């Protein structure tokens, strides 16, 4: 895959991966001190995280746990979750969904890495507002209950 196929999505570098029709999958590089989206859940998709390099802190139903390279996390439908890279190095990980479909979120909101200022554009007010306005149409539901705070 060429660099032109890499995307910046909400501050994370994303590489879409080709899969069969049963699931979707992407490779993510999360820079140091970058967090994921607000705590959220999917009603129909199960999701997994497989950590390749570094350590990713993952919140699942209000409980935070660090996951090192080689760790696998399974998140069934209706599991409120998010993540953060608390370290000083990039974290590289694979995430996927079954059934397939949610991966289109990353293509639809991604800024090609070849565009000047792509990382900054990916977290611009305009992009964030588009995400907020459309996130539920992708099957992602924000859960802002106090137990899910990232601190």
From TrEMBL:
InterPro entries: Cupin_2, QDO-like, RmlC-like_jellyroll, RmlC_Cupin_sf. Residues 28-95 form the Cupin type-2 domain. It comes from the Bacteria. This is Cupin domain-containing protein.
